[in-house]
Design brief:
Helix 4 crosses helix 6 and helix 42 crosses helix 43. The protein is mainly alpha-helical and about 1000 residues long. The longest helix is centred in the last third of the chain and has 31 residues. About 60% of the residues lie in helices and about 5% in strands.
Amino acid sequence: MAPGRREPSSLARRGLVDAERAEQLLADPVLTELEGCRDALVDTLSRCADPDAALLGLVRLVEAAAQQGEDGLPGALCTDDRARRRVLGVLGASTALTDHLVAHPGHWHAVVEAEGLDPAARAGAMIAAVRDPGDLEPQDALRVEYRRQLVAIAALDVTSGDPVSELPVAAAALADLAGAALEAALVIAQDELPDEAAAARLAVIGMGKAGGRELNYISDVDVIFVAEAAEGHDEGEAIAAATRLASRLMSACASSTAHGSLWPVDANLRPEGAQGPLVRTVASHRTYYQRWAKTWEFQALLKARPMAGDPEVGAAYLDAIRPFVWQASSREDFVDDVQSMRRRVEDHIPSGEAARQLKLGPGGLRDVEFSVQLLQMVHGRTDETLRSGTTLDALAALSRGSYVGRRDASTLDHAYRTLRTLEHRIQLRRMRRTHLMPTGATDLRHLGRALRIFSEPEKGVTALRSETSLEVRRLHQRLFYRPLLSAVARLSDDDVRLSPEAARERLLALGYRDPAGALRHIEGLTGGVSRSASIHRQLLPVMLEWFGEEADPDAGLLAFRKVSDALGTTPWYLRLLRDEGTAARTLARVLGASRFTGDLLLSSPEAVQMLGESGGLVPRSREDIERRMRAAAGRKDELEGAVSSIRAIRRAEFFRVAVADLTEQIGLDDVGRALTELTCATLDAALGVVGPAVEAELGRPLGTDLLVVGMGRLGGREVGYASDADVLFVHDPHDGVADAQAQEAAAAVVSRLRTLLGTPGSDPPLGLDADLRPEGKAGPLVRSLGSYRAYYERWSEPWEAQALLRAAPCAGDVALGERFVALVDPMRWPKGGLPPEAVRQVRRLKARMEGERLPRGADRRTHFKLGYGGLSDVEWTIQLLQMQHAHEVPGLRTTQTLPAIAAAVEAGLLERADADAMREAWSMASRLRNAGMLLRARPVDSVPSNLREADGVGRIVGMPPQSGLTLAESYRRTARHARSVTDRVFYGEV
């Protein structure tokens, strides 16, 4: 082997992957002048991000320099360690900048002599280049000078001893370079358009990372243009002139020439976005922000600063808009807008990129920036020290002001620098705009080495990113929620000390409408030195966030405090919330979304255990519920206690179903079926204890079989949370028992049953409504089967036959239920269908109901039951078809609405499109009625007119937050379609 040559394996140990090729390149005649410093050269290569690319780039650069008479490069590389590290560092970090140096080999001097420059020096050099472009066009000279300064910035960056710590220096230099380019581009525009330059004083306001002096290597540069008329020119003329200047500035930067382009200049953050004028006056901006701007626009203005153009106009612009920025958090819609901004960011991430996104993904840069900016907007209203456009400066100010803990601020600062450094190195590689972690092993290796990870760089950099993102996500919760505890609780010395006023402002910003009450609850849960207080101090920061994401965070926090007060000394409760991750999240979700569920839980706090059980939210079967009810009742000596124990189990099962519904584990059909079985199990179990009690009181057997027939939604297995139980009570005397004696016993049982189940208590009372019985309220509450037969044979009206369409045995004697069904089937499925007169009678009754039964003041367009296209329209339409055709279409012989609609389609009695309209309207009305009860803990008959309540209802049925306005529109549209079907199919209108 020739003297001075290295073994290929030795080069591989120094980080060169293709050692044989590296040996060939080192032996290239182009590098002859470097033979004497080959060991130093290889040593420096070993510390490059990509030693192979650095070596290849070196050969190309030295060759290009020689061709252009740049003879000093080899000597500098051999004798100057700093020169060698900088040149090879750039060549190993960026193939794109390597190409630039090869095209402009004289720029190696900029690399070797690089130093920090102030903004004025950068702008001066840039303007000098475009005013004296030599053989180039001015905008080409702009590009060449921009990249000359860029390679110098990169040289300082990639050879930094600690690139993560030095990240802000590089980011600020890149922003200053962008400002210098904008200034020079404006000079180009003014030189080309002298008349326009004389008419307008144009300022370029930097936004985003450019405005915050924290720019990336490659990025759009966000700007806003503002102008005033020059002396002797009117405003209209000046704005037109400034618009032409701004347009030319943008093209000078963004257009592609033989020397490439810089970056797009993005002016879409201006008032009205891309639809608004490109340039406005200061007064026009002020008017817009005063009257029309959304919260996100003020958040964007946090980073606004003049970057180029007329400094006086730029200063006037800042003076005009700053007051609006720092009052934005007091706006009524601040919380809604903030939540919308977060969702917009997350919704625009392609699903395949989320895990790789350094900027927008979970635990990414946007999490840090959003957290810092929101805290600035909340507290910067009264604390001017927080008003910085630079993320890390603002974070430091938040820490100094005790809005963020010192340790948290330090951790988040380092995490942000780390993520930005990763982003810089990824972009620098090919000078492409990207925020995605690479996936290929080679790219990960280069990225890891760029961050000084030389041992297993692929694994190391992947772990670094993962750990950093997890830390950012965790700190996001601590930043917002843990400091709230400091206003009322004793925390560690490192924890934030928020004043009560600062805590109040933060709670308001997070959606709590009664911050004083929330602080009292926090104090009650976390005060003292008990184990309960300690665990609550761990839980509350994240749970406060979860409550804040729901429709009523105040009610959620209040209910949580009450449950914790009831169970706080129970060992399993706090262990459940602390150790079962989904249990605490589910509890916060249901308490913040539903007063009804909160009330149920407060009555049976121990029901929270089901949140941690495997399968705990699966609705139980009727048999299982009834078995447990009978067992619980059997342990009580008194009737009232027995029924109370039955109602307690009903209450817990109500909670189970409601939670499963709210967490989208079951749908509308499942809810109806589960609540129906729960109701029937309750009735059966209650009959099992009331009957013997009445027998004991009478001193004799009842002497009759009893049956509870479900009617309406109960018979249709469509029970909702607010549904009463429509029933018929039937008895059938035993042989030898006098009718009067049997009637007396049956009436006593029914009366006691209604009283015990319908009395208000800690659970929703089970009202038993028997108004659909023969003769209505004027008739006896309970009848014998024979009495029903006699009545139906002589006096029955069509509406009663229609009501019986939904009749189904629910509780009591099974054989009696079969006999009752055999009695009513011929009435509800009449042979030959309904005669024309009966059809007319049904239609007249429906029309009269529409005119008389709608409550005063109710909106016919949004009333769930009696409104146009509501439940009544759908049910009467399908029920008329059932009475007309069920005798010949077996599928119509069902008590359930949706299966009847499906059977009508199958039989050709209903067009599929009409059936879809009816099904959608009926389901939507049912879901909204259920959601209203869940939200308010009382029946809701119409789409809420209160936007906050409408938003809460909408969230429960799966609509996005802030859907209050669209909920009513969506319901009305759906109901209109169903009403058109009712008009044609039920009323026969064409």
